[in-house]
Write a structure and sequence with these properties.
Number of domains: 2
Radius of gyration: 21 Å
Helix content: 40-55%
CATH topology of the largest domain: Rossmann fold
CATH class of the largest domain: Alpha Beta
Strand order of the largest sheet: 2-1-3-4
CATH architecture of the largest domain: 3-Layer(aba) Sandwich
Order of helices and strands: EHHHEHEHEHEHHEHEHHEH
Oligomer: single chain
Number of helices: 12
Length: 375
């Protein structure tokens, strides 16, 4: 009697046969800076002279943004975690504003015969610029392939994940580890949570179309409060913690989320602060908004004011964060198989859905098609 081999275990990411890591992109050589910035600011009428001023930030780092190398490292970390879970689903990478562009990634998927992808975006929060604009990019890429006579794979995406434990608990641990060596600063110690500023109108419209809006700032506040409470309890501190912003880029007359991190640092120095811990909870990795706006500009502000600055690492390729991303991918696959709703992470802020509702985080300038939503 022959031995019957047991059936092979189903891939935990079934029904998906590919993963798309979708990111912002950045220049990798000096000659790429202005073309990159033109793509980022397309339709806003910003002259090259102004773009050249912004481009100087990149020249400080050899004309190269760190983001693409960080995405390469994240791809490798995801591959390692997927292999450990018995999944051989390939991981592709596409950028909104630089090579490899999203359409190139989808073209590669089509050439490899992949039929259904699940996308994970390197941005954790809901808003137009951090969620819907990526969905618009996916729709434009699919249309581009169609114009070239190629059939793009079907695409779903994981939900915004700022309140998922893989992101939130990793940030909490990193903040605690950064605070431990300076906890003795006592009353002179301050904790600032930093994120990318966006126009106030964009924040007001972030979240579901039938909701109260301001999901972008609301989730930051919720995460900052949870981290503050955990580190205070762990270290016996009584830090208030507060949310500040960086990377404002709009015209002076347009309201953006405030306070700016540098303005708040000046106020804290006047209030008697001696040590300030900056926790960049709005960012997944140490890209330009971190290495320039915080490590360069904010650090210079602290030196001028006589403040000791401690910068908390971003989650990057931290193993707990990578594990959380793969948990999110498996969660989305289970949802696609019809195996139940996504659970809430915080009682007062339910998890955002993976399929966006109509009117969620709208484009305030013009209506554009977007994938992975009901509108």
């Amino acid at each position: 009697m022959g031995v019957t081999n047991p059936p092979a275990a189903a891939d935990p990411l079934s029904p998906y046969d590919g993963i798309l890591l979708l990111s912002f992109g950045g220049p990798e050589a000096a000659e790429e800076i202005i073309p990159f910035l033109r793509r980022v600011t397309a339709g806003k009428g910003i002259p090259d002279e102004r773009l050249a001023v912004v481009g100087q930030h990149y020249h400080l780092f050899g004309g190269r943004s760190p983001i693409n190398d960080q995405n390469r490292a994240l791809l490798a970390a995801l591959r390692t975690e997927l292999d450990a879970r018995g999944s051989d689903v390939p991981v592709l990478w596409g950028n909104r504003n630089s090579a490899p562009f999203t359409a190139e990634a989808l073209g590669e998927a089509a050439e490899r015969g992949l039929e259904r992808l699940v996308a994970v975006v390197t941005s954790a929060y809901p808003s137009y610029s951090s969620c819907r604009q990526y969905r618009e990019d996916l729709a434009a890429a699919v249309a581009q392939l169609g114009d070239a006579g190629q059939d793009a794979p079907a695409i779903d995406k994981v939900r915004p994940y700022a309140l998922h434990p893989g992101f939130s608990r990793t940030n909490s641990r990193l903040v605690r580890e950064a605070l431990e060596p300076v906890a003795a600063a006592g009353e002179g110690l301050r904790l600032l949570f930093v994120t990318h500023s966006i126009p106030d109108a964009m924040d007001e419209m972030s979240g579901p179309g039938d909701g109260d809006g301001r999901e972008y700032s609301r989730e930051h506040v919720a995460l900052a409060a949870a981290i503050r409470d955990e580190v205070n309890a762990a270290l016996g501190l009584d830090l208030a913690g507060e949310l500040v912003f960086c990377s404002r880029s709009g015209p002076p007359h347009q309201p953006w989320l405030e306070p700016d991190v540098n303005d708040r640092l000046a106020e804290l120095a006047d209030e008697g602060a001696t040590t300030v811990v900056l926790a960049p909870i709005g960012f997944v990795s140490d890209h330009m908004e971190v290495v320039y706006d915080l490590d360069t500009e904010a650090r210079a502000t602290c030196e001028r004011l006589g403040l000791q600055m401690v910068r908390v690492p971003t989650v990057g390729t931290d193993s707990d964060f990578v594990t959380g991303l793969v948990d999110l991918l498996e969660e989305r696959a289970a949802e696609a198989r019809g195996e139940g709703p996504v659970p809430a992470q915080w009682p007062d802020l339910p998890a955002r859905p993976s399929v966006c509702d109509p009117g969620c985080c709208p484009n305030l300038r013009e209506a554009r098609p977007a994938l992975c939503g009901r509108d």
